[in-house]
Design brief:
Layout lengths: L1 H20 L6 E4 L2 E4 L3 E11 L3 E9 L5 E10 L19 E2 L9 E6 L5 E8 L6 E6 L5 E6 L2 E6 L5 E3 L28 E5 L3 H4 L6 E7 L5 H24 L1
Antiparallel strand pairs: 1-2, 3-6, 3-7, 3-14, 4-5, 4-8, 8-9, 10-11, 12-13, 13-14
């Protein structure tokens, strides 16, 4: 009698784990048209490097039905100064105004959880190195635009290209324009691959180098809920087997 009960418990556990293993794969869209997941998904962001005389901040925004960003967004990375040399023209040993982890950006790794079914975008805000006034801004899911201040007036300028380059950090100089491939293919394997994102801050007459703010993105490696459920059932089955053995003895 106990043997039969144990067999049924193990069989049921095996069947449930089998169902968990054939659960549908996660659908994701992470491209220049926006970010969307079909379930709550935590993405790990890493800061690589910045280039230029602007002090920039990267934020995540939820996108409304009208296609516009909602609210002030959530800050991902924030430069405390324009570059490693500060806010002046002393660029340091490498001879360029570059910002690195621990000096220009203090917190270089962070996470953000994208809620299922919602549309999001990345937005880069760049400020004048000394006055702190907004100089340029760009959003991942728009055709691209930037704003600056001229004689105290805010000016919006439309651009022809996206301001984000996916799976590349662009050029290392301000003399070579990089062709933006647009949306990265839907179904990108975030769980196993690291996505590079190069951003052009629209400064320097929008030189198109896409190296002004360089980050990485990858989905955090967490067990699937179905797998966790299967492990819980398996543990329950082992508990039942042990209890039945104790009764038998």
């Amino acid at each position: 009698m106990n043997t039969k009960r144990n067999f049924l418990t193990v069989a049921a556990t095996t069947a449930i784990v089998g169902l968990a293993s054939v659960a549908p794969a996660q659908a994701a869209s992470f491209g220049t048209s926006g970010i969307n997941f079909n379930k709550d998904t935590t993405v790990e962001f890493g800061f690589n490097k910045s280039v230029g005389l602007y002090r920039s901040e990267l934020r995540v925004f939820e996108v409304g039905a009208d296609g516009n960003a909602i609210g002030d967004g959530y800050s991902i990375f924030n430069e405390v100064q324009a570059h490693d040399g500060g806010n002046g023209y002393d660029f340091g040993a490498d001879g360029e105004p570059s910002g690195t982890c621990g000096i220009t950006v203090l917190d270089c790794e962070t996470q953000f959880t994208f809620e299922a079914g919602k549309d999001y975008t990345l937005g880069l805000f760049s400020y004048h190195r000394t006055s702190g006034s907004l100089k340029t801004k760009s959003f991942l899911n728009n055709t691209g635009y930037y704003s600056y201040y001229e004689d105290g007036q805010k000016v919006e300028v439309n651009t022809d290209d996206q301001l984000f380059l996916l799976d590349s950090w662009g050029s290392e100089t301000d003399t070579t324009k990089i062709i933006n491939p647009g949306d990265y293919a839907e179904g990108y394997d975030f769980l196993n691959d690291l996505l590079k994102i190069g951003i052009d801050d629209s400064g320097n007459n929008q030189d198109g180098d896409y190296n002004d703010f360089q980050i990485t993105a990858k989905v955090a490696s967490t067990p699937e809920p179905t797998v966790l459920f299967g492990l819980a059932v398996a543990a329950g089955g082992m508990f039942m087997t042990r209890r039945n053995k104790n009764k038998a003895s």
